[in-house]
UniProtKB/TrEMBL annotation:
<dbReference type="InterPro" id="IPR050256">
    <property type="entry name" value="Glycosyltransferase_2"/>
</dbReference>
<keyword id="KW-0328">Glycosyltransferase</keyword>
<keyword id="KW-0808">Transferase</keyword>
<comment type="similarity">
    <text>Belongs to the glycosyltransferase 2 family.</text>
</comment>
<dbReference type="InterPro" id="IPR001173">
    <property type="entry name" value="Glyco_trans_2-like"/>
</dbReference>
<keyword id="KW-1133">Transmembrane helix</keyword>
<protein>
    <submittedName>
        <fullName>Dolichol-phosphate mannosyltransferase</fullName>
        <ecNumber>2.4.1.83</ecNumber>
    </submittedName>
</protein>
<keyword id="KW-0472">Membrane</keyword>
<dbReference type="InterPro" id="IPR029044">
    <property type="entry name" value="Nucleotide-diphossugar_trans"/>
</dbReference>
<feature type="transmembrane region" description="Helical">
    <location>
        <begin position="265"/>
        <end position="288"/>
    </location>
</feature>
<dbReference type="GO" id="GO:0004582">
    <property type="term" value="F:dolichyl-phosphate beta-D-mannosyltransferase activity"/>
</dbReference>
<feature type="domain" description="Glycosyltransferase 2-like">
    <location>
        <begin position="5"/>
        <end position="166"/>
    </location>
</feature>
<keyword id="KW-0812">Transmembrane</keyword>
<feature type="transmembrane region" description="Helical">
    <location>
        <begin position="230"/>
        <end position="253"/>
    </location>
</feature>
<dbReference type="Pfam" id="PF00535">
    <property type="entry name" value="Glycos_transf_2"/>
</dbReference>
<dbReference type="GO" id="GO:0005886">
    <property type="term" value="C:plasma membrane"/>
</dbReference>
Length: 339
């Protein structure tokens, strides 16, 4: 069992992987501890598999897990956490916005203070767009109100977990895990390490607005039934508004000041229709989660694990080549060093 496992979810990161390895490897080699880097290829369609294969030739601590299809960031992170062997397991993205140098400080803090969780907390996000900073702030404020104050503000998926914490997370029957909420929910001893968020080293962001919205919906529906209660209160509020409007219409009728028209009728109809659709939509989100949980399908599929191949090689005493990968072969060969 290595002391540290570093889980890296990767999707179409051929441009940034060489720079990421150049910064990560010296940090891990300088720890004086045994380690493994678990690179989870989340169904990349570019030359990422070939880049990882080339890196493995000169980096024996690099372990590659290839998912059979794109399962999303949280699915890839789940695969890495479930298959990591380390006494401590850290997770970091490959875009270099979270500095790998902070991993050493995280491990020292966890070992010296006997902590199960060490969060990487961003103190400066000026490299992000104003819209990104505003939406991130709104998300964390909402989560702290809904889930509780134990959710650290500005802490994403850059963290370090003890083996005990990973085992607890593996036991949870979550179909759509949101680890930035699940990890604080465990209530295990935790600490924080602050850092300045950097610009993406290369490539484009793999987390557009649509995925941010999906993450917010999964976070809310996975941790609270407050939206269902909100739908109930909206229904009661709508009924009260309709009752007041009926009284107003009756008084106007008695005073003889009724003005024929359809505008008010249309507004009321549209308002009530939208309210009903909103309530049905909120209810549908929870029904969908029940449906997905009842299916019991895993949220990731492992197609290849270099560690398992290595174990088979040792047991049979022969070298078994990794399965061939040929995505964009002509363009990708420049990433693979000559033997």
């Amino acid at each position: 069992m290595p002391t540290l496992s570093v889980v890296v979810p990767i999707y179409n990161e051929e441009e940034v992987l060489p720079s990421f390895a150049e910064r990560l490897r010296p940090v891990l080699d300088g720890l004086g501890e045994t380690y493994e880097v678990v690179a989870v290829d989340d169904g990349s369609r570019d030359a990422t598999p070939l880049v990882l294969a080339g890196m493995q030739r000169s980096w024996p601590e690099l372990r590659v897990i290839r998912l059979s299809r794109n399962c999303g960031h949280q699915g890839a992170l789940t695969a890495g956490l479930h298959r990591a062997h380390g006494a401590y397991v850290a997770s970091i993205d490959a875009d270099l916005q979270d500095p790998p140098e902070t991993l050493a400080e995280m491990l020292r803090l966890a070992q010296s203070e006997q902590l199960d969780i060490v969060y990487g907390v961003r103190t400066d996000r000026t490299t992000d767009t104003p819209f990104k900073r505003w939406t991130a702030g709104a998300y964390y404020n909402l989560m702290r109100r809904v889930v509780g104050r134990n959710v650290p503000s500005q802490a994403g998926d850059f963290r370090l977990l003890s083996r005990a914490t990973v085992d607890v997370l593996r036991q949870l029957p979550e179909n759509r895990p949101v680890y930035r909420l699940l990890v604080p929910w465990t209530g295990l001893p935790s600490g924080e390490v602050t850092y300045v968020r950097e610009k993406r080293a290369a490539g484009e962001s793999k987390y557009p607005l649509s995925k941010m919205i999906r993450l917010a919906v999964d976070s809310i529906t996975g941790f609270t039934a407050a939206p269902l209660r909100l739908a109930t209160w909206l229904g009661l509020l709508g009924m009260a508004a309709c009752a007041l409007l009926a009284v107003f219409a009756f008084v106007a009728y008695l005073n003889g000041s009724v003005v024929p028209g359809w505008s008010s009728l249309i507004v009321i109809t549209v308002f009530l229709g939208a309210l009903q659709l909103l309530c049905l939509g909120l209810l549908g989100e929870y029904v969908a989660r029940i449906y997905v949980s009842a299916q019991g399908r895993p949220n990731y599929f492992v197609g290849y694990d270099s560690a398992e191949d290595a174990e088979r090689d040792e047991s049979h005493g022969a070298a078994v080549p990794a399965p061939p990968i040929v995505p964009r072969q002509a363009e990708a060969e420049r990433f693979v060093p000559a033997p």
